[in-house]
């Protein structure tokens, strides 16, 4: 497809950043899963799943770095900060290395290891050792030299028997030798040996699998996979048992002259004489289900990385006080669904597979975001609801939220507190029956409020699959066997309700089902030219646009029903593909793409998310692809788009991916009913401002004219939706001079008008 948005970003080994990132993108990442920690004299650097943060130990100022700043969305495996060069080096599980210059924030992306002709499963980067300006990179295949000054790679050492690949977990330099803790023993070689590329130069000092190796007070220590801490004896050239931990070790490092050996449940802190100063148990931290990943010491403070609860600090001297130093964010990066109002965002994490299989069940909480920041409701507070896969805010009462569990029922949340879990015992919801009478499995997914405030609910894999919770608290069910051949085999994706009250349901086996309470009319569109013209019966999402068209996303492409207004009269209903012309040849828009989400913005553009091809923005009729965002040309952390929603007031588009959520700050906002709320921002426009002037709160198709105080026209346009942009030029020719400019706004019919002013300061 030629009509796509392209950004220059990658040359060989170089990452230049995203040209529009400063103005257009915002990251909303979780920092809870700490992968690694590094340190400078007054700063701790922490790597989460695919984002970084640092904390100045003197000022307590926290700085975050995400894909919006240039990081990859891939999974981070290790991090190292070079105090000498003031650079932070990030290693990834896929072999990628990103070097951050802390002085100016620039980043260099190193792809040489990714490009090595090795199995992709053995390119993980485990550790960085800096020695005389060279980084020795421990990988799952061996060791690689990297010059941190010139940004060039040197030799690669395959130190396994016969020169084969070998997992190297950590390296240390001690008394002139490099020591490598590997999956098959401890190996060493003389650092000055010019032929380290020869595996024969690496002698084996100990067998078994070793997790870490480091120096402390002029001694060398290592820990193996069983938790045995051993000390190197130079006389015997062997490692001797020092202490046997009760559990396997996962990390070993030294900070501030303190060695910290980590197990998932306990931290062991030793001083320079290897006297155990402190033993920290996960049970000492007030949060529940703490799992340690790593820890270090800076000054007199212990910094503790955890699996799901972020970074904690505590005093080295034995204090029982623990402080969470993690930046605020959602519970997890893999946000499965979200719902958005102008002032609040809700996110849930309970994913199910592409075939709607919820097993193995997950036990995650729910997150809320507003101007005050993030509020995370833990799993312990959601009344046992598992695999929560959808969430919806009551448009009439923003303090009332419903979260759909694809196993446990429907959770009601009032004033941020889960209050009731609707299930088969206290509501009209039903458990599927093929698991036997004692098996309770209530699969609730899509929900939608109608204009009367009734909540419509889909209950998968049962006969009465469509439910409604009336405003009076009563439940009503509708049997789907009238329209679906085997409703017990059908799962439901999205549901939308049009202005005529027709409910449109995406199903896994029966295409799109339409239902109108007027006469209890059911109709459907499925495969076949005469039965709906869908490419496949597996429909994942549906969306209504401002022209009453129904956009249908399936697991094999896109279809559009030209009008929902003819639901009761048209037989059969028929959807059509969007045909575009590319290279003078007609072809189908998003042919056979697995479409996961469709959202319509205020200008009737369609934001379309896919399972593995990123995000598309297409024009109202689909003929123009305005943007195609992927991990290669944008800050998207993943090409797997789980959900999309738009703030209709600001135009900000929120994109939930499998590896984090970001937003794109568009200008396509919903149109207003009148011009009473029209406004201009920024105002005044100061000399250092680099963006565009927005005129918001408009009617759709409003005419906007901008003139100088002398009445000379400098810009004119017609709004699509509620906002227009002005680049402060005279019709794109030159920047207008300093002064006050008049903005004349009128409705399409000319009946309603208003005048605004904006000051330009050059």
From TrEMBL:
<dbReference type="InterPro" id="IPR026444">
    <property type="entry name" value="Secre_tail"/>
</dbReference>
<feature type="signal peptide">
    <location>
        <begin position="1"/>
        <end position="21"/>
    </location>
</feature>
<dbReference type="Pfam" id="PF21544">
    <property type="entry name" value="PorZ_N_b_propeller"/>
</dbReference>
<dbReference type="InterPro" id="IPR015943">
    <property type="entry name" value="WD40/YVTN_repeat-like_dom_sf"/>
</dbReference>
<keyword id="KW-0732">Signal</keyword>
<feature type="domain" description="PorZ N-terminal beta-propeller">
    <location>
        <begin position="44"/>
        <end position="203"/>
    </location>
</feature>
<protein>
    <submittedName>
        <fullName>Secreted protein (Por secretion system target)</fullName>
    </submittedName>
</protein>
<dbReference type="InterPro" id="IPR048954">
    <property type="entry name" value="PorZ_N"/>
</dbReference>
């Amino acid at each position: 497809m030629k009509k796509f948005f392209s950004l220059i970003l990658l040359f060989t080994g170089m990452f230049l950043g995203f040209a529009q990132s400063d103005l257009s993108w915002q990251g909303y990442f979780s920092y809870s899963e700490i992968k690694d920690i590094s340190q400078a004299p007054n700063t701790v650097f922490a790597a989460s799943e695919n984002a970084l943060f640092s904390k100045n130990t003197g000022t307590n100022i926290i700085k975050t770095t995400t894909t919006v700043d240039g990081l990859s969305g891939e999974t981070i495996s290790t991090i190292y900060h070079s105090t000498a060069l003031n650079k932070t080096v990030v290693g990834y599980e896929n072999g990628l290395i990103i070097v951050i210059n802390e002085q100016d924030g620039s980043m260099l992306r190193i792809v040489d290891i990714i490009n090595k002709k090795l199995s992709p499963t053995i390119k993980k980067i485990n550790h960085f050792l800096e020695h005389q300006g060279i980084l020795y990179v421990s990988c799952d295949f061996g060791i690689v030299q990297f010059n941190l000054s010139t940004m060039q790679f040197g030799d690669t050492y395959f130190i396994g028997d016969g020169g084969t690949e070998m997992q190297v977990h950590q390296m240390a330099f001690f008394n002139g030798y490099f020591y490598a803790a590997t999956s098959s023993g401890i190996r060493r070689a003389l650092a000055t040996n010019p032929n380290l590329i020869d595996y024969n130069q690496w002698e084996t000092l100990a067998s078994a699998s070793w997790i870490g190796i480091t120096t402390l007070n002029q001694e060398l220590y290592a820990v193996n996979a069983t938790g045995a801490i051993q000390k190197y004896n130079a006389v015997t050239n062997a490692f001797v048992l020092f202490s046997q931990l009760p559990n396997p070790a996962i990390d070993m490092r030294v900070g501030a002259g303190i060695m910290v050996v980590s197990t998932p449940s306990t931290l062991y802190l030793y001083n320079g004489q290897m006297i155990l100063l402190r033993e920290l148990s996960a049970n000492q931290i007030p949060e529940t289900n703490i799992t340690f990943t790593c820890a270090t010491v800076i000054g007199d403070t212990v910094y503790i990385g955890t699996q799901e609860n972020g970074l904690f600090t505590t005093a080295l001297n034995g204090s029982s006080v623990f402080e969470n130093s993690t930046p605020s964010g959602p519970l997890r990066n893999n946000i499965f669904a979200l719902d958005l109002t102008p002032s609040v965002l809700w996110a849930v994490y309970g994913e199910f597979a592409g075939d709607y299989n919820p097993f193995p069940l997950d036990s995650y909480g729910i997150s809320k975001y507003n101007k005050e920041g993030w509020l995370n409701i833990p799993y312990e507070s959601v009344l046992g609801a598992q695999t929560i896969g959808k969430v919806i805010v009551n448009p009439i009462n923003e303090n009332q939220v419903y979260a759909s569990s694809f196993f446990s029922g429907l959770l009601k949340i009032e004033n941020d507190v889960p209050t009731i879990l609707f299930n088969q015992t206290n509501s009209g919801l039903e458990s599927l029956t093929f698991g036997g009478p004692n098996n309770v499995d209530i699969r609730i997914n899509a929900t939608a409020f109608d204009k009367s405030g009734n909540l419509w609910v889909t209950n998968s894999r049962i006969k009465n699959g469509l439910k409604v919770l009336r405003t009076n608290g009563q439940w009503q069910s509708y049997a789907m066997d009238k329209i679906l051949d085997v409703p017990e085999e059908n799962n439901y994706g999205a549901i939308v309700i049009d202005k005529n009250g027709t409910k449109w349901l995406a199903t896994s086996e029966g295409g799109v089902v339409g239902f109108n309470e007027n006469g209890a009319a059911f109709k459907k569109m499925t495969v076949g030219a005469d039965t709906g013209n869908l490419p496949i019966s597996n429909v994942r999402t549906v969306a209504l646009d401002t022209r009453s068209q129904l956009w249908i996303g399936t697991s094999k492409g896109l279809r559009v029903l030209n009008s929902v207004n003819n639901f009761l009269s048209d037989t059969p209903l028929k959807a059509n593909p969007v045909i575009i012309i590319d290279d003078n040849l007609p072809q189908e828009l998003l042919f056979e793409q697995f479409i996961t989400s469709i959202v319509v913005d205020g200008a009737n553009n369609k934001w379309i998310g896919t399972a593995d091809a990123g995000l598309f923005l297409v024009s109202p009729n689909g003929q123009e692809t305005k943007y195609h965002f992927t991990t290669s040309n944008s800050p998207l952390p993943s090409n797997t788009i789980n959900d999309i929603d738009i703030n209709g007031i600001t135009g900000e588009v929120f994109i939930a991916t499998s590896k984090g959520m970001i937003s794109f700050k568009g200008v396509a906002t919903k149109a207003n009913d009148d011009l009473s709320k029209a406004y201009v921002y920024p105002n005044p426009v100061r000399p250092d401002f680099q963006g565009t002037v927005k005129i918001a709160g408009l009617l759709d198709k409003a005419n906007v004219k901008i003139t100088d105080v002398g009445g000379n026209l400098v810009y004119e346009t017609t709004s699509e939706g509620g906002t227009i942009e002005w680049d402060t030029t005279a019709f794109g020719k030159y920047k207008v001079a300093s002064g006050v400019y008049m903005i004349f706004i009128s409705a399409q019919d000319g009946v309603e008008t208003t005048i605004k002013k904006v000051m330009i300061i050059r």
